[in-house]
């Protein structure tokens, strides 16, 4: 008696989608896009936009 064959096909490889770069020239541009406030680690955050260096850029 033979054993049923197991699925020997490799798992499909998924390719991560590239992260789109988000760039706001200034806070007015970020606010107009509805993206403000921007938090450190989020797309579009730049230290230059964070005046008080608290990790939140373009805050009110």
Please tell me about this protein's structure.
By secondary structure, the protein is mostly loops. It has one helix at residues 27-32; strands at residues 38-39, 56-57. The protein has a two-stranded antiparallel ribbon. The model has no long low-confidence stretch (mean pLDDT 88).
What order do the helices and strands come in, and which of them pair?
Elements: H1 27-32, E1 38-39, E2 56-57
Antiparallel strand pairs: 1-2
Task: Average the pLDDT over all residues and give the rounded result.
Answer: 88
Total DSSP E strands: 2
Order of helices and strands: HEE
Radius of gyration: 23 Å
State the helical fraction: 10-25%
As residue ranges, the low-confidence spans are none
How do the strands line up in the largest sheet?
1-2
Between the first and last Cα atoms, what is the distance in angstroms?
74 Å
Number of continuous helical runs: 1
Structural class: little secondary structure
The largest β sheet comes out as: 2 strands, antiparallel
Overall outline: rod-shaped
**What is the percentage of strand-forming residues?**
5-15%
A few lines on this structure:
Residues 23-59 form the Excalibur calcium-binding domain. This protein is low in regular secondary structure and 60 residues long.
């Amino acid at each position: 008696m033979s054993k049923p064959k197991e699925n020997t096909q490799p798992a499909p490889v998924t390719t991560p989608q590239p992260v789109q770069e988000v760039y706001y020239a200034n806070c007015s541009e970020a606010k107009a896009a509805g993206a403000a406030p921007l938090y450190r680690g989020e797309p579009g955050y730049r230290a230059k936009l964070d005046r008080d260096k608290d990790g939140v850029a373009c805050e009110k």
